[in-house]
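Batch manifest, entry 17 of 40.
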Amino acid sequence: MKEKLFTSVQGERKLPENHNGMEIGIYSLADLYPDPLTGKTIGAKQRTEEIIKAAKLADEAGLDVFGIGEHHRLDYAVSSPPVILSAISQITKKIKLTSATTVLSTVDPVRLFEDFATLDLISNGRAEIIAGRGAFLDSFPLFGYDENNSKELFAEHIELFLKLNNKESVTWNGRYRPPLKAVEISPRPVQQKIPVWLGVSGTPESAERAGSLGTGLALAILDGDPNLYKPLVDRYRESAAQTGHPLENLKVAVTGHAFISKTNQQAIEEFYPYHSNYWYHLNCYRGVSVPITRAGFERASSKETALFVGSPQQIIEKIMRQYELFGHQRFIAQIDIGGMPFEKVAENIERLATEVAPVIRKETRKCNG
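Output type: structure tokens
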């Protein structure tokens, strides 16, 4: 790794004294798409069991974070992240457990806090939340919300959740739920506060909100030039500084699709069917039918882009190039998309934990030492 990759981040941000380098983890959105090579689609029961098994493997391999997403559709297996994470908490020891993401516009903040505070108790202080507005609208009619109020609901719900997170007794008035008058908020978590991140994919206003609220910023970078996301991180930190949040308390995470194989070409060969299959089904929902070509996928997997596909060395270089841009504290990889069989997921967990994570931790610890 060339030394020039690290010079721009040295000394720029004060980090906690116990900083041990970047946290590395994985997350799943639990899609139930057919395996493009066999045509077989596994059921929700098997998918759930495999997700729990993957979390156990990640913990045993020494990864730092495991996340699970929320969807309310039959082509996804998980609608209740805290329930799945609670099951995982009982067979893991150290790995942090987060939603990825919680659709905050359509969940009651009081119920959400109670669920994750309970998760925090039974996991001995490992619960976290990544909150966002989600990619689908299915939860709005399901829970009786108007999708046209999505932004306003999110703003109100995050405001209330952070207040619940801060105080044992809360008085609050809003527009979209009944008021609270000196109510006790229980149980209280093991941690002083449940860590909260806002998921941001490209909206400057969302990055600014995360900074003004003092939450973490979970940046979804799925493709393209990572330089395009630098203004979001800058705006996040500027907004935090303007509202009085100490920069050393802020955290940035990069999340994205990843696949690691022995060589760059082998990774492209193995991952292309699953990546293209994932986007085919997702884009069908959006009314887009243009497929991802093999040539387009190879361009998207090149060393200059944000898609984490390649050999362990290429993945290391991509993470460190982004670290130069963002100075982030966490990287979380989504590695189980498009009907990928569990055997390949397990292989990627092992490669990420044994061949990528140790190098990234060492280099980022060196940069911030």
